[in-house]
Design a protein that fits this description.
By secondary structure, the protein is mostly helical. It has two helices and no strands.
Length: 128
């Protein structure tokens, strides 16, 4: 970030959001889509015995609308899964970055400690 601006990230909230999205997708959207797909395999049943062209046209229009809806739902499902995956990657990257920063600080402290003359360290006479 430029200008020394600081920001904070609530990793717990990112994790909760990711878990909720994954749960909603896996337990709600995905089973609903599978159920709808199973029912669509049987086709539109109303007016099958009717000689009316209007009934047949209505059945075809409904079938097409449901086909489009299924395609949209599949796209939403895929996007929700991608978003949940992205949130999990972001979370993992933040945690890795935090761990690397902590390790860098420990290395810097160790280097400084070892570079100091013994009298300025906890082992020196000033601290005993």
């Amino acid at each position: 970030m430029s200008g020394g601006q600081k920001f904070s990230v609530d990793l717990g909230q990112i994790q909760l959001t990711s878990e909720k999205l994954r749960s909603d997708t896996n337990e709600g959207l995905q089973p609903g889509l599978a159920d709808a797909n199973g029912k669509m395999q049987h086709g539109i049943r109303f007016g099958v015995r009717s000689p009316s062209g209007e009934t047949e046209a209505a059945a075809r229009a409904l079938d097409e609308a449901l086909r489009i809806h299924r395609g949209n739902t599949e796209a939403h499902l895929m996007r929700a899964q991608q978003l949940a995956n992205a949130l999990e990657i972001i979370l993992a990257n933040y945690r890795t970055s935090d761990e690397l920063s902590r390790m860098d600080n420990e290395v810097i402290e160790w280097l400084i400690y070892n570079a100091l003359p013994k009298q300025f360290t906890a082992e020196g006479p000033m601290f005993q």
